[in-house]
Amino acid sequence: EHTAIIVVAAGSGTRLGYGIPKALVPLAGRSLLEHALDGILQANCAAQIIAVLPAGDAPLAALAGNHPSRPTCVEGGATRSDSVRSGLAALKPGTERVLIHDAARALTPPEVFREVTLALVRGAHAVIPVLPVVDTIKQVANDGSGTSPHVTGTPARESLRAVQTPQGFHAPTLLEAHERAAGWTPAEAAAITDDAMLMEMLGERVDTVPGAAAALKITTKPDLTLASSMLQERKP
Ligand code: C5P
């Protein structure tokens, strides 16, 4: 088995307003990180699990260390990309496939991990879980007059997808993409919001598999409320 999963959990979680790292925020009595690791363990598709944690965070390190998935723990960086790079540095030599997963998508069903892994096994170099978008999405720009941005276009909604994690990659290709990105200016680096974008910039084809409503990114208090009701519905 040559698949690894990196779960990035080094974000500050300021938007949740708990004053603790987001991965430590409780949902039905367990931290988001533990829920994320539960899903990864159930999916049973990786030989190595790497948890990227906030530097010096003893409580999260203890939770990860005691989790039955037995993750390798490493310290994250200032941006999500930096945290992914810390995780990549801990990959075992010879890793063929790597899944990058946000701890904030704590309730991602095991099937999504399996679908992403299966697509990689079948030969995809990059694969992301996606959902159709329900909102109409506008492109906007600022004309510099100090007013709110104005609309410059409306992409056809049928051609748009909302992107989730785990995002799966041919590991050597993702490593190459991250090596290139390491030399970018902070402004260039800030424009990269996911790993698939790096692959697109290398000219790699990125495939899609169906995502899941339960894989929502828990970012705000209402998200936490929604996640908690989803968790209740899951129980028999
Ligand atoms: O901040 P954002 O919601 O985009 O974070 C997505 C995921 O990336 C979260 O799981 C968060 O813990 C992780 N992250 C990280 N290191 C950072 C910033 C975010 O591991 N410096």
Automatic annotation (TrEMBL):
GO molecular function: 2-C-methyl-D-erythritol 2,4-cyclodiphosphate synthase activity; 2-C-methyl-D-erythritol 4-phosphate cytidylyltransferase activity; metal ion binding
Keywords: Isoprene biosynthesis, Lyase, Metal-binding, Multifunctional enzyme, Nucleotidyltransferase, Transferase
Cofactor(s) listed in the protein's UniProt record: a divalent metal cation
Catalytic function, reaction form: 2-C-methyl-D-erythritol 4-phosphate + CTP + H(+) = 4-CDP-2-C-methyl-D-erythritol + diphosphate; 4-CDP-2-C-methyl-D-erythritol 2-phosphate = 2-C-methyl-D-erythritol 2,4-cyclic diphosphate + CMP
Pathway membership: Isoprenoid biosynthesis; isopentenyl diphosphate biosynthesis via DXP pathway; isopentenyl diphosphate from 1-deoxy-D-xylulose 5-phosphate: step 2/6; Isoprenoid biosynthesis; isopentenyl diphosphate biosynthesis via DXP pathway; isopentenyl diphosphate from 1-deoxy-D-xylulose 5-phosphate: step 4/6
GO biological-process terms attached to the record: isopentenyl diphosphate biosynthetic process, methylerythritol 4-phosphate pathway; terpenoid biosynthetic process
Residues with site note (Transition state stabilizer): 15, 22
Known EC number: 2.7.7.60, 4.6.1.12
Positions of the UniProt region annotated as 2-C-methyl-D-erythritol 4-phosphate cytidylyltransferase: 1-236
Site keyed Positions MEP for the nucleophilic attack: positions: 157, 217
Function of the molecule: Bifunctional enzyme that catalyzes the formation of 4-diphosphocytidyl-2-C-methyl-D-erythritol from CTP and 2-C-methyl-D-erythritol 4-phosphate (MEP) (IspD), and catalyzes the conversion of 4-diphosphocytidyl-2-C-methyl-D-erythritol 2-phosphate (CDP-ME2P) to 2-C-methyl-D-erythritol 2,4-cyclodiphosphate (ME-CPP) with a corresponding release of cytidine 5-monophosphate (CMP) (IspF).
Family membership: Belongs to the IspD/TarI cytidylyltransferase family. IspD subfamily.
Protein name according to UniProt: Bifunctional enzyme IspD/IspF
Organism the protein comes from: Paeniglutamicibacter gangotriensis Lz1y
Residues of the full protein shown: 9 to 244 of 420
